C-alpha cells in the first residue's frame, strides 16, 4: 500500500472525529492508519520500552 502524507492525514482526521459513515471507507482509513503505525511505531516504541524498563529496574534497585 502506498502511503502519502495526505492519505495518512485524511485517515487520521476522519477516524479521530468519527466522520466515517461508510463502512468501506472506515476500513480503508483503518488500513492506512495501521500501515502507518506498523511502519513508524515499532522503531520508536522499542527504544522507549527499553528506557522505561531501565527506569523500572533503577527504581526497584533504589527501593
Entry keywords:
63 residues, mainly alpha, 84% helix, elongated
Walkthrough of the structure:
With 63 residues, the protein is mainly α. The chain has one domain. The protein has helices spanning 5-17, 23-62. α1 crosses α2 (23-62). The longest helix has 40 residues, at 23-62.
SSE diagram, text form:
Elements: H1 5-17, H2 23-62
Helix pairs in contact: 1-2
Instruction: Please state the average pLDDT score.
Output: 79
Helix content estimate: over 70%
Radius of gyration: 17 Å
Report the portion of residues in β strands.
Answer: under 5%
Segments where pLDDT lies below 50 for 5+ residues?
none
The biggest beta sheet reads: none
Number of helical elements: 2
Number of domains: 1
Task: Let me know the number of strands.
Answer: 0
Query: Topology as H/E string?
Result: HH
Structural class by secondary-structure content: mainly alpha
Terminus-to-terminus distance: 49 Å
Overall outline: elongated
How is this structure best summarized?
By secondary structure, the protein is an all-alpha fold. The protein contains two helices and no strands.
